[in-house]
Design brief:
membrane, mainly alpha, transmembrane helix
Length: 235
């Protein structure tokens, strides 16, 4: 018990860990709040609690938006360090990663403008800027899925070669672990991409059709996967 509490404290003390915890609680609150408001037609107390959880979720989402005001430089540093990728890296993965970095880099200033417009700091309409954010986020997620699928293809080829050459089991175990990690990444990005499409203008696929509980379920799924991957990476 004490070890679990200490792990949680360490997670909350890091910016990346705290953001993932806030994200998980945010979507989890939306999931539970959405479920409660659905059955609230016959239960006033459930309706009240559900609405409170949805408001709490919205405030946590706003909190994450404010915290991201300071993420531009760290993203720029990462993009600069990656550059055009290592020369020995797969060419397809390199260019997908570069395009992903561009989409991620453009996302932040668009979100800052949208936030500032909502806060009435600047006199522009925020709608189109939030739309730009959603398009850039969805583009980044789609590129991430394509990248993971490409990595999976290369890992499976490598695994088959090792099995054919009867190389050490430790190497094969490492490849299996990487394959599981990429599959989790695909699942996480697919869940977030589904939400991104939901927040697009009506008329595009299922845009605007998801109930709150489904948005919360998809977001919670991707958030929990992110926590699992972060824990595995730290280990």
């Amino acid at each position: 018990m004490q070890q679990s509490v200490e792990s949680l404290v360490r997670l909350l003390e890091s910016y990346r860990g705290r953001d993932k915890i806030i994200r998980t609680v945010c979507y989890g609150s939306q999931l539970v709040g959405g479920v409660l408001t659905r059955k609230a037609e016959t239960d006033v107390s459930s309706q009240r609690l559900g609405k409170s959880l949805l408001l709490f979720s919205a405030q946590l989402s706003h909190c994450r938006t404010v915290l991201r005001l300071f993420d531009d430089l760290s993203m720029l540093a990462y993009s600069h360090s990656y550059g055009l990728g290592a020369s020995d890296e797969d060419k397809g993965i390199r260019w997908i990663s570069v395009l992903t970095n561009v989409a991620d880099q453009l996302y932040y200033p668009c979100e800052h403008i949208a936030w500032a417009a909502d806060a009435e700091i600047i006199k522009v309409k925020s709608d189109k800027w939030w739309l730009f954010c959603t398009v850039l986020w969805g583009t980044s997620l789609l590129l991430g899925i394509i990248r993971s699928l490409r990595v999976l293809l290369l890992l499976k080829r490598k695994l088959k070669r090792q099995e054919r050459d009867e190389e050490g089991s430790s190497r094969q175990t490492g490849l299996h672990r990487q394959i599981r990690g990429e599959l989790l990444s695909v699942l996480s990005s697919a869940a977030d991409l589904s939400n991104a499409i939901h927040w697009m203008p009506p008329g595009l696929l299922w845009a605007g059709r998801f109930p709150s509980w489904l948005v919360g379920l998809l977001g919670t799924t991707s958030s929990v996967i992110g926590l699992i991957q972060m824990s595995s990476s730290d280990s």
